[in-house]
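Protein modeling request. Please complete all fields; requests missing the sequence field cannot be processed.
Requester role: graduate student
Desired output: 3D structure, token encoding
Chains: 1
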Amino acid sequence: MLRIQPKGDNKMPNNYIIPTVGRIYRNRNGGEYRCTGNAAYPDDIQKERSLALGEHRTSVIRLTDGWAIEVHGIHQYEDGTVEWNYSSGGSFRSESLALCCQKCKENGKDMGRYFRYLDFLRDAGTVNMFGAIPYLQETFPELRADDTWAKEVLTAWMDSFRSSTP
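Delivered output (166 residues):
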């Protein structure tokens, strides 16, 4: 991940970054966003220039409701949280993600913890992710009673990777 220190007086030091696609980032306001894509550059010079000027564009999707936006000038603080200079192009890109997030909210569950577990499971390489439902149900008892909900969680997780690259 490339980092460059932005200009300005901030109470907490931060750096402009190019986020890692697929990674979940927590915004300073507490929201969780999965990076789905980054702007492409013809060469490293253009990429570093864009980053230094706070003009790099990144596509993210909010995990609470499936809201997808393009963020400009994303920067990360020492505590790992992120902010951006501004955002554009917001829309609901994934109906299944929005519906699953709503169901989690209604049942007082945190969608982010399901997604973090699925990220861990994927990174471990123990299972083809299309077969992850039994693993979800074993780890999260609330998903055992309702196969449909476990399927919705897995589908929403997969949908959160939909590319919306600028």
